[in-house]
Amino acid sequence: MRAAIIRANSLGGLFSFKFIRNIKSMSSSSSSQDFVSRPVIKKVFAKLQKEGDGAVVRRGISRSEQKLLDPFLMLDEFSVSPPAGFPDHPHRGFETVTYVLEGGITHQDFKGHKGTIYAGDVQWMTAGRGIIHSEMPEEEVNKGLQLWINLSSNEKMIEPNYQELSHSDIPKAEQNGVEVKVIAGESMGIQSPVYTRTPTMFLDFTLQPGAQIHQNVPESWNAFAYVLESGEGGGVFGSSNSSPVSAHNVVVFGPGNDGVSVWNKSSSKKLRFVLIAGEPIGEPVVQYGPFVMNTQAEIDMTIEDYHYGKNGFEMAKYWRSQ
């Protein structure tokens, strides 16, 4: 019974605000003059798989990509309808970012928090030393993204924390056929209010036919894109003569250079993708389902803490979502 709970996926978050971390060198430009893009080194098609209780996800990042994309652990594009969902399950040692694209997700945790996020809303959950929560669909069709971001060893056991942005609070900019929603980091001169313990950029771009974007990314960071919508011949990444990339693909960029260049070469369809980048932590990663630590001994201790309800999991034996 507990093994089934441990394997359950997460889609969670709650409410509070933190001050923004000021990250420089993240502006973007619609001009390619003097801009050197990172090359594309890998493409991964996100295949459908079952997760949670009857839900379906496309897993774009899994353990095989973790070394290339430190600090990122997982990216899922989820689709869930009642009565399926993500019932009570624990986390420790990392953060989850939930971005709802359609419908809504209702969440609650063992500390008494409860709320619903709807299309365009974001919740950034720091699991820290331990959280148990549920995420269940609010409407008939519910879709979105969930990103897992690792925490450094000195932050894995901090108290849980939550940030929340409604769609109206997310900064947006538009120029030359390019629209960006700045979930974390900075683009086109605007900055997100989200505080990122592990420095992170999370941008939602929409390019009209014929548009292009050249987004700066700090040189030492790892970066990837996930394509949400693309017309025939549309999304071209890294180099203008590269092969187009269709929806549900992860595009992994190599290191260095100024940042990332993207072109929409479709004659009629928009291109929508998220660009995600982060500062590598450079520490060992040992993962057991929803627990992510640095050593196997820490994982063993986490399982014991969860089983016996201690060190952050005190309510594990008593709490059940409503």
From TrEMBL:
Q: Which residues bind Fe cation?
A: 89, 91, 133, 135
SUPFAM superfamilies assigned to the protein according to its UniProt record, in alphabetical order: RmlC-like cupins
Residue ranges annotated for the Pirin C-terminal domain, each copy included: 203-312
Write down how the cofactor binds this protein: Binds 1 Fe cation per subunit.
Matches recorded under InterPro entries: Pirin, Pirin_C_dom, Pirin_N_dom, RmlC-like_jellyroll, RmlC_Cupin_sf
Indicate where this protein resides in the cell.
Nucleus
Which Pfam family is one of this chain's hits? Pirin
Keyword tags: Iron, Metal-binding, Nucleus
Family per record:
Belongs to the pirin family.
- Could you tell me what this protein is called? Predicted protein
Species per Swiss-Prot/TrEMBL record? Arabidopsis lyrata subsp. lyrata
